[in-house]
């Protein structure tokens, strides 16, 4: 009787895991889509604002959004005081430093090359998840990882990555690799904090620390803006908050090793933005890459372990 019960519960357990992983992939994909708008803000801005300035204003808008949520829901701020402030600071440092490294790398070498190197963050995140969190990668996950990585490689290759290699690119390339490691470290911190802290706590701390960390770089690179000019960048705050909430929900449900490759989907979303807003026409390789990333995402969403 006990054996029959165990046999019956096994399919139910696999079904629950499948539903859980599917939900995690969908949450993470939604967050990635929203973050694509944030990442594209520099292109929309042109020369009107610097990258650190945009990021800092985004954090200001994000914190204002969270304060408004607390006010509307009448939740006392002390409820969201964390016992792990250093972990939140570390997460914010990883994210801010990784973002600044990516910007610096792109300034010293072709953007497409810097982007291609930045994609290593997924591989680093998977490795750190296995090493630090004890996550295990099953065969279906490897299939999804390979498909997503191949798709990302096809897209960046179609844009001309690494066609012109010069010795002067070595330092920017090293900075890009360091940035990828830092962003991977942030993913591990998000996973750790998402299962230990309420989502609102995680959001409050990262936005508050982000404001402090980026205040100096933003001031040094500040370009004059009136309140009308600042408004679009401040409105990135609510978008980023929603995106971060989606990412936190996803990482609370599944492993970093499972969700890491979903980050490649931002290449697909950025391609859509390029078509809609900038008249960019992707080539056949970009469509192939997008199809591979989609196929990999479907495989990962169907993982039952």
From TrEMBL:
The protein's location, in the record's own words, is: Membrane
Q: Could you state one GO cellular component term attached to this entry?
A: membrane
The UniProt entry, under SUPFAM superfamilies, shows: Multidrug resistance efflux transporter EmrE
Q: Give the domain of life.
A: Bacteria
Membrane topology, as annotated, equals: Multi-pass membrane protein
Q: Does the keyword Oxidoreductase apply?
A: no
Which keywords annotate this record?
Answer: Membrane, Transmembrane, Transmembrane helix
Q: Family, per the entry?
A: Belongs to the drug/metabolite transporter (DMT) superfamily. 10 TMS drug/metabolite exporter (DME) (TC 2.A.7.3) family.
Q: What is this protein called?
A: EamA family transporter
Which species is listed as the source? Answer: Nitratireductor arenosus
């Amino acid at each position: 009787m006990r054996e029959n019960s165990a046999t019956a519960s096994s399919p139910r357990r696999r079904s629950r895991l499948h539903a859980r992983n599917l939900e995690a992939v969908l949450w993470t994909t939604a967050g990635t889509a929203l973050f694509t708008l944030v990442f594209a803000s520099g292109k929309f801005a042109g020369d009107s604002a610097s990258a650190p300035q945009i990021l800092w204003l985004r954090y200001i808008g994000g914190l204002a959004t969270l304060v408004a949520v607390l006010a509307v829901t009448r939740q006392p701020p002390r409820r969201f005081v964390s016992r792990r402030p250093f972990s939140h600071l570390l997460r914010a440092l990883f994210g801010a430093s990784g973002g600044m490294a990516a910007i610096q790398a792109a300034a010293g070498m072709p953007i497409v090359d810097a982007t291609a190197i930045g994609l290593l963050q997924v591989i680093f995140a998977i490795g750190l998840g296995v090493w630090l969190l004890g996550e295990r990668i099953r065969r279906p996950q490897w299939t999804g990882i390979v498909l997503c990585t191949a798709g990302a490689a096809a897209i960046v290759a179609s844009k001309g990555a690494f066609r012109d290699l010069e010795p002067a690119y070595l330092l920017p390339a090293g900075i890009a690799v360091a940035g990828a490691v830092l962003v991977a470290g942030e993913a591990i911190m998000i996973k750790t904090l998402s299962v230990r802290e309420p989502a609102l706590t995680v959001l409050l701390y990262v936005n508050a620390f982000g404001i402090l960390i980026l205040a100096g770089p933003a001031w040094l690179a500040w370009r004059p803006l009136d309140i009308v000019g600042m408004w679009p960048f401040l409105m990135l705050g609510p978008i980023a908050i929603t995106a971060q909430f989606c990412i936190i929900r996803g990482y609370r449900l599944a492993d970093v090793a499972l969700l890491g490759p979903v980050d490649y989907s931002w290449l697909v979303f950025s391609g859509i933005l390029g078509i809609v807003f900038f008249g960019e026409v992707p080539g056949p390789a970009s469509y192939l890459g997008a199809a591979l990333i989609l196929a990999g995402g479907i495989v990962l969403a169907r993982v039952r372990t």
